[in-house]
Amino acid sequence: SVTGGSAETITITDGSTGSSISGTQTSEGITDKSGNATTSDINPADGVVVNPDTGETFDSIQNAVGSASTDDTLRVGAGTFNESVTIDVEGLTLEAAGADVTTVDSSSGATIKISGADNVSISSLELDGSGSSDSGAQGISIQSGGSATVTNTDITNAYGGIQTLSDGSSV
Q1: According to the model, what pLDDT value does residue 157 have?
Q2: For 135-163, how does the pLDDT look when each residue is reduced to its tens digit (9 = 90+)?
Q3: Which residues contact 165 (CB under 8 A, 6 or more apart)?
Q4: How is the beta sheet containing 138-143 ordered, strand by strand?
Q5: What is the pLDDT of residue 106?
Q6: CA distance 41 to 144
Q7: What is the pLDDT of residue 66?
Q8: Is residue 94 a contact partner of residue 123, using CB atoms and an 8 Å limit?
Q9: Closest alpha carbon to 120 in 96, 81, 89
C-alpha cells in the first residue's frame, strides 16, 4: 500500500512483513530515505533507465550502458526508446518493465548488439526493428565471442531474431 502526505513524499508499506520505505517520488523513480529498500523494490519512471548499483539515471539505454561497469544492472522503465544499443560490458543485466510496455526501436542495424561481452542478461523487452532501413538487421546480434541469456523478450519486425556469429558467441 502507498500512504503519505503529498505527491512528493510517500511511504510504501509491505503488509506481509511490516517493513516499509520512505522516500521521494521524482521523474527518476523513488529515492529511499529509510534505508529499508533493496534495489529490487524500486523501479524507474517511464522513459528512464536506472543503474541501481550506482544510483545514476539516464534518458537512453546506450548512455546507461556507456557508463556501466562489469556486473552492473540497468533497469529500464516503460516507454519506447528509439535507439540501437551496443553492449560491451561483461556481466551486464538489462531488465525492463515488460515486453508489453518497454520497446527498443532500432533505426539501423541490430537492435541490440553484444560485442565481446560475456554473461550479458536481457529480459522483458520488445525489440522492434521496424525503424531500421537495414534489410539484414537482427533483433540481437552476438559478436566477438560474447554470450547472453535472453528471457521474456519479443523480437518484432526484424530480419532475424538472434544472430550468433561463428566466433565463439553463444546464447
Answers
A1: 83
A2: 667 889 898 889 999 999 999 888 778 88
A3: 141, 142, 143, 144
A4: 85-87, 112-115, 138-143, 160-164
A5: 86
A6: 35
A7: 97
A8: yes
A9: 89
Residue 24: Cβ-neighbour burial (10 angstroms; 0-12, 13-18, 19+): middle
DSSP letter, residue 98? -
Residue 158 CA: distances (Å) to CA of 42, 55, 106, 129, 149? 32, 33, 9, 5, 19
**Which H or E run contains 66?**
helix 61-67
Nearest to 34, CA basis, from 11, 17, 55: 11
- Cβ(52)–Cβ(43) under 8 Å? no
How many Å apart are CA 129 and CA 141, to the nearest integer? 12
Beta carbons within 10 angstroms of residue 9's beta carbon: 12
CA distance 10 to 32: 10
